[in-house]
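The protein record filed below.
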Amino acid sequence: MKIKFDMTNLGIMKYFLGIEVTQSEDGIFVYQSNCAKDILKRFRMENYRLVVIPIAIGTKLCKDDQGSDID
């Protein structure tokens, strides 16, 4: 690609399209905490109590085509 396009190495990626990216030996992790904070600020909810919703690392989410519709 360097032959075809003018490129610059900016080092390890930290942000991409507004998404925070963290790279470590355990994997690559993406966060949207800044986006969530902006939404809370927009709706004047910055001082609400935080709740942690745990999900196991490595959990793969997929569409359940056989599942029933939910209203």
